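Blackboard transcription, Thursday session:
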Amino acid sequence: MKKIAILGTGSVAQIVAEKLVELGYEVTLGTRNVSETLAKPENKMAARPAFKVWMDNNPGIKLSTLSEAAAWGELLINATQGVGSVHALKAAGNNNIKGKVLLDIANPLDFSKGMPPSLTVCNTDSLGETIQREFPDVKVVKGLNTMTAFLMVNPSLVPGNHNVFVCGNDASAKTDVIELLKKMGWNDKSIIDMGDISSSRATEMLLPIWVRLWGKLQTPMFNFNIVVANK
Amino acid sequence: MKKIAILGTGSVAQIVAEKLVELGYEVTLGTRNVSETLAKPENKMAARPAFKVWMDNNPGIKLSTLSEAAAWGELLINATQGVGSVHALKAAGNNNIKGKVLLDIANPLDFSKGMPPSLTVCNTDSLGETIQREFPDVKVVKGLNTMTAFLMVNPSLVPGNHNVFVCGNDASAKTDVIELLKKMGWNDKSIIDMGDISSSRATEMLLPIWVRLWGKLQTPMFNFNIVVANK
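(Written on the board underneath:)
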């Protein structure tokens, strides 16, 4: 699969898109409103230029509507905000996404009550499960959601072993995602297959400690490493 | 402080008690019903002998009611099941616990819907916060709740660096707990002060992935290591 559609146009979508182009993929970002996205100003907090400037600097990356991007893509990545993910996938259209692998890297963060955010769904459900339930014909794989975007696509930014968690019901979809992760620099030891999509609960529930560690460490450039006793 | 009262008599309480005696502390376990506890049979699943056999093998450890143990202890450890912790502390009696440091190592696990357990409280609240709110005169410090009991008291069982998280509102209470952790073998690099007691949400929410990793790795002898990029 060489055509990857990324749903979302924020900093996470952009950082992942840049890496995929570098790896030789064709990439289209999908947005609810193309002209509004093209008018997005510089985001100093996230150190991102105006969207149009970024597009000009990355001529290989295309922008289109959610439905056009989803119809075109052979593999889909959900990089929308968690609270809007189901809505964005409905706008993408079930006919355009069905049967495809959807790598869900979003988190159901609730910033409505200030910092640190809580989760809009957790414990007995998750965003990954919600998407799989709403779109049963899509092969949802949860992954990469437990770290900052730069680290997703360049694990060597943090030294030594550390982990990326993969959850999903479809074995071949997980194989496709794991192949993509390996191209991004993740090795066999670092990739942990957590089981079915219900494991998304467990990985999304890492976000509360992630956010607090971010504040504590004063850098987002860290990750979880699961260390096991020698047998 | 040389006298430590542990509320609870299960395998976690026993493993922590053994270590504290080894370190030179006086230890009393508190239970709701002394005679019932003394009659507890062997627990093959947890590889624990009958309670009376364990007591005979550990003559330095005393057993008494929750209120007697709490009144006697200079530092308290909550090793009861999370769902029963507030009830146990009420039975211990506010007059017996007020002003004291309470190291809360329990988790609000809900096994009522089968495995893996969910949490009875999370996201916008936690067991640590619940206890601090119910007993405002107690200095609650959440810690050690993110790993198996053998590792709590012997971190070298897992090689290399890995972390223990400490949360609490009272700085001197955290200092007391950190001193105890160091005696158990935790070093400065491994101890992360997460901030106030609301951070208990974040550390208790590690349990869902802990439980699934336990199943995946087929051993409870693992821990989280936070790996940070070099500056």
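Lecturer's comment: The CA atoms of residues 152 and 181 of chain A lie 9 Å apart.
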